[in-house]
């Protein structure tokens, strides 16, 4: 863990800023979940991996995933369009695609403000 030491001692779990200079990666999230849930890191990693797999599976089927109080993951369809190669300026055809999107829930928005 590359977290910064706190200026003062506290009884609660560290904030995301304490983990890696304001950026959280998967390993930091696993560490924080393990501490908050009082479970092993390997159990926390399995839980995170299972959640990500469940979201991917649902989105692949075109089903939205809603976590009340957190937000919703859903799929959008992008139509085919013309684009430009940034190096050459040549026009290229961009195929139609599906892309994942996330819409934050009210509780998550309220937690940030």
Mind explaining what this structure looks like?
There is one protein chain. The chain has 2 domains: 1-58, no CATH class; 64-113, IHF-like DNA-binding proteins (HU Protein, Chain A, Irregular). Helix content is 38%, strand content 24%. The protein has helices spanning 17-20, 26-37, 41-60, 106-112, and strands spanning 65-67, 71-78, 81-84, 91-94, 97-104. Helix 2 crosses helix 3. The radius of gyration is 19 Å and the shape is elongated. It starts with 16 loop residues before the first helix and ends with a helix. The relative contact order is 0.10.
The Cα radius of gyration reads 19 Å
Tell me, what's the shape?
Answer: elongated
Strand content: 15-25%
Number of domains: 2
| Residue runs with pLDDT of under 50 for 5 or more positions | 1-10
List the helices and strands and how they pair.
Layout: H1 17-20, H2 26-37, H3 41-60, E1 65-67, E2 71-78, E3 81-84, E4 91-94, E5 97-104, H4 106-112
Antiparallel strand pairs: 1-2, 2-5, 3-4
Brief summary of the model shown:
The chain has 113 residues and is of the alpha+beta class. It is built from four helices and five strands, in the order H-H-H-E-E-E-E-E-H.
């Amino acid at each position: 863990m590359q977290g910064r030491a706190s200026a003062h001692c506290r009884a609660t779990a560290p904030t995301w800023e304490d983990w890696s200079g304001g950026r959280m990666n998967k390993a930091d999230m696993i560490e924080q979940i393990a501490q908050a849930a009082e479970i092993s890191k390997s159990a926390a990693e399995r839980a995170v991996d299972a959640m990500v797999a469940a979201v991917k599976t649902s989105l692949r089927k075109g089903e939205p995933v809603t976590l009340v109080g957190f937000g919703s993951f859903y799929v959008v369809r992008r139509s085919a369009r013309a684009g430009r190669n940034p190096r050459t300026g040549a026009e290229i055809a961009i195929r139609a695609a599906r892309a994942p999107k996330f819409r934050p829930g009210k509780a998550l928005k309220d937690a940030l403000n």
